[in-house]
C-alpha cells in the first residue's frame, strides 16, 4: 500500500540531515518532493514523501530514535494512507 508523508520543509531538512546517507531510510527520504501550497494569504512549503507502507514504518521507527518532531507526520500518513 502506498502512503504519502507530508511534513514541513524545515522538519524534512533536519530529519534528512540526521540520517545516515547509506541507510534505507535516507533512500526513502531523499527523493521527497517540495510542494508549495496556499496557506491563508501566503504559501507554505512542505515535502511529500511517496513511499510504501513498510517504508513509512521504517521512517517512523527511525524518527522515534533520531528526530521525534517528524513522528506525528509519519504516524498520520500511516493511519491515513492515500494514493500517491
Tell me what you see in this structure.
With 84 residues, the chain is an alpha+beta fold. It has one domain. The protein is 46% helix and 30% strand. It contains 4 helices and 3 strands. It has helices at residues 9-18, 24-29, 53-66, 71-79, and strands spanning 2-8, 33-39, 42-52. The chain has a 3-stranded antiparallel β-sheet. A hairpin with a 2-residue loop joins strand 2 (33-39) and strand 3. Helix 3 (53-66) packs antiparallel against helix 4 (71-79). The longest helix has 14 residues, at 53-66. The protein is globular. The termini are close together. The mean pLDDT is 94.
Helix content: 40-55%
Note the run of SSEs as H and E: EHHEEHH
Instruction: Determine the strand fraction and express it as a percent band.
Output: 25-35%
Please describe the biggest sheet, giving its number of strands, its sense, and whether it closes into a barrel: 3 strands, antiparallel
Amino acid at each position: 500500500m502506498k502512503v504519502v508523508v507530508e511534513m514541513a520543509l524545515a522538519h524534512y531538512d533536519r530529519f534528512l540531515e540526521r540520517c545516515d546517507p547509506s541507510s534505507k531510510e535516507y533512500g526513502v527520504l531523499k527523493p521527497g518532493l517540495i510542494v508549495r501550497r496556499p496557506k491563508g494569504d501566503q504559501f507554505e512549503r512542505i515535502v511529500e514523501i511517496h513511499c510504501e507502507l513498510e517504508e513509512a514504518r521504517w521512517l517512523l521507527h527511525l524518527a522515534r530514535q533520531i528526530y521525534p518532531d517528524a513522528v506525528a507526520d509519519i504516524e498520520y500518513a500511516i493511519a491515513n494512507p492515500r494514493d500517491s
